């Protein structure tokens, strides 16, 4: 009798989760499997689509556009991500110290850029960057200085890094600020009674206590760096010579699929990009775990 009731409860439970798995399989697993299937084919002038095995993947490893895109993304990881997370941590610690006046308004202002739609943010910065029509160009001309072309070949990558930093500092700050708020107040009080300064309190107590949250923001930032798309896609209209088709791997996969009409090769690039993200995220996570063990 008991087993019959348990079996009925299990069936009811499966009935509740079945819609989720149906949607998950339809909207995620099926497109992914189809993309993987497409990546093993190539359209030939004679014969149409033919199975080519790993030929598209080998082609991607020999494609300078794809490799240069990966290189730019690696530069973003090494330069932009540390600056962004450093600013987010600094703002979170400053707000948590309770010594900043108008902390609620400041917190809202720092987080506000994340609430701005990505397309709107890029269009706004595109206007600000414009040498002939933008705000920075107008200010430098008013000061009698030569205008700086932030959309030139040499500066476009750093201009995009600036947009990403502006948009995501507040997002990461909120994660770190929430982690700081979960630290027991007794630790703060004990450190202050021992005469610890705010810097010492932050370095020796707060930052070690929020290490899991810091690691989380690093992983999110690694994944986000490989997904940069809006910025090159929109800025290419006003900086066509500075942003090539393979500016970032994500942007390159889009151009290959919908501009060059090579769906099979684009699917292979997308899968390779996914594997690269998994490998980099795993390496970062593994190194952080080893460092945590040493601490």
TrEMBL record:
Tell me the superkingdom of the source.
Bacteria
The cross-references to Pfam families, in alphabetical order and at most eight, read: BPD_transp_1
Q: Describe its membrane topology.
A: Multi-pass membrane protein
List the GO cellular component terms: plasma membrane
Keyword terms of this UniProt record: Cell membrane, Membrane, Transmembrane, Transmembrane helix, Transport
Record-linked PROSITE patterns: ABC_TM1
> SUPFAM superfamilies recorded for this chain?
MetI-like
Q: Which residues form a coiled coil?
A: none
Q: What does the record list as GO biological process?
A: transmembrane transport
Membrane-crossing residue ranges in chain numbering: 12-34, 74-96, 108-128, 155-180, 209-229, 263-284
Residues of the ABC transmembrane type-1 domain = 70-284
Compartments, as annotated in UniProt: Cell membrane
Q: Which PANTHER family does the record match to this protein?
A: BLL4140 PROTEIN, DIACETYLCHITOBIOSE UPTAKE SYSTEM PERMEASE PROTEIN DASB
Write out the similarity annotation: Belongs to the binding-protein-dependent transport system permease family.
Put simply, this protein is called Sugar ABC transporter permease
> What is the originating organism of this protein?
Pengzhenrongella sicca
């Amino acid at each position: 009798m008991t087993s019959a009731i348990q079996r009925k409860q299990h069936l009811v439970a499966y009935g509740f989760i079945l819609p989720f798995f149906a949607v998950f399989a339809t909207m995620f697993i099926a497109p992914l499997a189809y993309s993987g299937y497409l990546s093993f084919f190539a359209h030939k002038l004679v014969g149409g689509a033919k199975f080519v095995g790993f030929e598209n993947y080998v082609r991607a490893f020999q494609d300078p556009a794809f490799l240069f895109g990966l290189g730019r993304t690696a530069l973003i990881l090494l330069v932009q991500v540390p600056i962004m997370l450093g600013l987010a941590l600094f703002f979170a610690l400053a707000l948590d110290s309770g010594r900043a006046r108008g902390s609620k308004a400041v917190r809202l202002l720092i987080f506000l850029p994340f609430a701005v739609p990505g397309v709107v943010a890029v269009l706004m910065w595109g206007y600000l960057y414009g040498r002939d029509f933008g705000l920075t160009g107008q200010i430098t001309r008013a000061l009698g200085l030569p205008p700086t072309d932030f959309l030139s070949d040499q500066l476009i990558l750093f201009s995009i890094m600036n947009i990403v930093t502006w948009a995501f500092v507040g997002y990461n700050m909120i994660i770190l600020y929430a982690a700081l708020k979960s630290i027991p107040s007794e630790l703060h009080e004990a450190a202050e009674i021992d005469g610890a300064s705010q810097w010492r309190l932050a370095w020796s107590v707060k930052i070690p206590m929020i290490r899991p949250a810091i690691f989380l923001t690093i992983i999110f930032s690694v994944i986000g760096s490989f997904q940069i798309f809006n910025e090159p896609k929109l800025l290419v209209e006003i900086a066509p010579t500075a942003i090539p088709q393979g500016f970032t791997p994500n942007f390159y996969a889009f151009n290959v699929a919908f501009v060059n009409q090579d769906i099979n090769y684009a699917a292979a690039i997308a899968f390779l990009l996914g594997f690269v993200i998994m490998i980099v995220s795993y390496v970062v996570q593994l190194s952080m775990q080893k460092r945590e063990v040493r601490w």
